[in-house]
Specification:
The model has no long low-confidence stretch (mean pLDDT 96). This protein has two domains: 169 residues, Rossmann fold (3-Layer(aba) Sandwich), CATH 3.40.50.1970; 203 residues, Dehydroquinate synthase-like, alpha domain. The chain has 388 residues and is α/β, with parallel strands linked by helices. It has 15 helices and ten strands. The strands form three sheets. It has a six-stranded parallel beta sheet, with helices on both faces. Strands 6-7 form a two-stranded antiparallel sheet. A hairpin with a 5-residue loop joins strand 9 and strand 10. The structure holds 5,6-dihydroxy-NADP and zinc ion. 5,6-dihydroxy-NADP binds next to helix 5, strand 6, helix 7 and helix 11.
């Protein structure tokens, strides 16, 4: 295995009533707070009032940016950065799901750039500084609360780009499972599909694995498979919501990487889908992942699928490897499309093959995607077709 650096510098307050620490944490970074949020769910669930009360109790000055869309737009990043520059904001407070958190990360970075924030996504502007970010997560899915990445959409160019900058890592994140009780069935299911995909992107790897990390990943996947249906059935089940929330964080905070160096596969493909069709990220991943698995399953890769089938789905390990491998993909489909009830094809959600060629080309910037199995644009186009 390769060497690696372990450094995940986000402090986490996990559980109920932890917001009483919010004022003290914000105060460490200054007086002027920009609160960022989405379309209003935080007001409906009473979280907005609680956050504002803590800010006011701490004697801090509050500014706001609302209306951050799912698949957050670069226009919101620019709007937020303008406020930060004009008001001399000290600290950002993102309250919401991955979209709000991602957007806020780029607001923090764009504050130090005089120009269109899209330049940052195009790698035309360096990111060496970022305002400090504190998050209050309301949806378990992306892991943005404990990673340094973020994905931004540009509807004008129909691009959606994700980058990682260490300076955008949140300083502190508040993870209270009870605030996710109001996440509806669809978004709970999409969150589960997203987090399982984050693990699959790392687990299916041709590098020599660290046995211990494979077991951690299998445990995380089993946790999602066990608790997502419970949370959908009984939205206020604390144990289910807590397990999903902490799993989403650990699925992508870097711990499971263990020095593996390879590109992700389904995420670049999905970002092309949500760039053009504005679909929910987890739904796109649910449709793509089993087809990508079918496409990449062969004699070279079969042992990893076998391991997945036996250790995650409890399949009979005495059966031939290929049989277990194929069955494991069927089990994943049953989970995503049966148990979680997500749409199983692109056709079902109104997407045809019109843009497959261009989407495939854009997924593999640089020619080939050096992933679990190297994929050229023509391979990716074929995988999109398998999703119809
Ligand atoms: O806008 P509001 O009113 O807040 O409503 C949201 C939104 O409509 C709602 N919601 C959130 N918390 C809620 C709630 N509704 C009721 N009760 C609550 N407690 O849910 C809807 C979806 O929210 P969104 O933030 O878009 O979902 P998610 O957390 O799945 O974020 C998706 C975005 O994150 C990116 C995706 O590409 C997508 O743009 N990703 C970010 C990653 C990262 N930073 O590392 C990695 C991921 O792979 C992913 O690409
Ligand atoms: Zn994802």
């Amino acid at each position: 295995m390769n060497n690696f650096v372990y450094n995940i510098p986000t402090k986490v307050y996990f559980g109920e009533n932890q917001l009483e620490n919010l004022g003290a944490e914000l105060s460490k970074y200054g007086k002027k707070v920009l609160l960022t949020y989405g379309g209003g769910s935080i007001k409906k669930i009473g979280l907005y009032d609680k956050v504002v009360a803590e800010i006011s109790k701490a004697g801090l000055e509050l500014f706001e940016l609302s209306g951050i869309d799912p698949n957050p737009r670069v226009s919101s990043v620019n709007a937020g950065a303008d406020i930060c520059k004009k008001e001399d904001i000290d600290v950002l407070l993102a309250v919401g799901g991955g979209s709000v958190l991602d957007c806020t990360k780029y607001i923090g970075a764009a504050t130090y750039y005089d120009g269109d924030a899209w330049d940052i996504l195009l790698k035309k502007a360096p990111v060496e500084k970022c305002l400090p970010i504190i998050t209050v997560l309301t949806l378990a899915a992306t892991g943005s609360e404990m990673d340094a990445g973020g994905v931004i959409s540009n509807p004008e160019t129909k691009d959606k780009i994700g980058l990682i900058f260490p300076v955008m890592q949140p300083k502190v994140s508040f993870l209270d499972p009870t605030v996710t009780y109001t996440v509806n069935k669809f978004h709970t299911a999409c969150g589960a599909a997203d987090m399982i995909s984050h693990i699959i992107e790392v687990y299916f790897n041709m590098n020599q694995d660290l046995y211990m990390l494979d077991y951690v990943m299998e445990g995380l996947m089993k946790t999602i498979i066990k608790f997502a249906p419970i949370a959908m059935e009984k939205p206020d089940d604390y144990e289910a919501r807590a397990n999903l929330m902490w799993t989403s964080t650990w699925a992508i905070n870097g711990f499971v990487n263990g020095g593996k160096r390879q590109a992700w596969s389904c995420h670049p493909m999905e970002h092309e889908l949500s760039a053009i069709y504005d679909i929910t990220h987890g739904l796109g991943l649910a449709i793509l992942t089993p087809r990508w698995m079918e496409y990449t399953l062969n004699e070279n890769t079969v042992s990893k699928f076998y391991q997945f089938g036996v250790n995650v789905f409890g399949l009979d390990g005495t059966l031939p490897q290929m049989e277990v491998a194929k069955k494991s993909i069927e089990m994943l489909k049953d989970f995503l499309f049966g148990t979680l009830g997500l749409s199983s094809t692109l056709t079902e959600i109104g997407i045809d093959d019109t843009n497959f060629e261009i989407m495939a080309k854009k997924s593999v910037t640089g020619g080939t995607m050096y992933a679990f199995q190297p994929l050229a644009a023509s391979d990716i186009e074929e995988i999109f077709r398998m999703c119809l």
